[in-house]
Design a protein that fits this description.
- By secondary structure, this protein is mainly alpha-helical.
- It has three domains: 45-90, no CATH class; 93-154, Membrane-bound Lytic Murein Transglycosylase D, Chain A (Roll), CATH 3.10.350; 177-231, Alpha Horseshoe (Serine Threonine Protein Phosphatase 5, Tetratricopeptide repeat).
- It contains ten helices and two strands; from the N terminus they run H-H-H-H-H-E-H-H-E-H-H-H.
- It has helices at 2-23, 50-58, 62-75, 80-90, 93-97, 112-120, 126-132, 177-192, 196-209, 214-231, and strands at residues 101-105, 146-150.
- The chain has a two-stranded antiparallel ribbon with strand order 1-2.
- It starts with a helix and ends with a helix.
Amino acid sequence: MVTTVYRATVMASLVLVAACAAKQPAVQTSSAPPPPSAGGPVSGDPSGSVDDALEQLAVGNSAAARQTLLSILKARPGDRKARSLLDQIETNPQVLLGAKSYAYKVQPGDTMSILAKRLLGDSEKFYALARYNGIDDPRRIAVGQVLRIPGAPKPVRAATPAPARMAPEPVANPQNPARARALRGTALAEMNKGNINRAVALLQQASRMDPGNGAIKADLDRALRVQGTVGR
């Protein structure tokens, strides 16, 4: 009798535990995708990204690029890059870049992107630059072709000239003792004639030709004293 009551109590407890477990709600985990990064594919948008629009513009497919950009701006109205690219498609290029322009001849290696980067400061303005020149496909430029570039040409910095090499000064009177002695004789003769200035000049020349000659130096000192006296 006791055993039967015990078994009935245990069975009732198990039924109660099972009923409580059945009432617990299942735990669910969230797997929401992260928000799209700027410039990347728009969530739920099959049209692509800003990079796709750039590629479409690069081959002149402005219609496809426009649809891509409109889809991006619908999902992200504040996307400045997408708006800038759409402006290149929809806005008059002279309004966008300015009416004033100058001529530029295409050089080897030039592309619209390279020119836009170098001359406009933004490589992604290549499509506006192409439209500015009436070109639908930015790839269609050739060496020697003359384009109009918005704005004013950048001043070309003149190259700094290399400093001129100073030529060595010629030696006016190389040492020549024999010639110096001859000049001394002529100078003494001029001094005796009263041509003191001529004598001084000859003795100075002789002194340079034979700087160690004491006689020439003494004659020159005397001639200079006489010249100073005459000059008074």
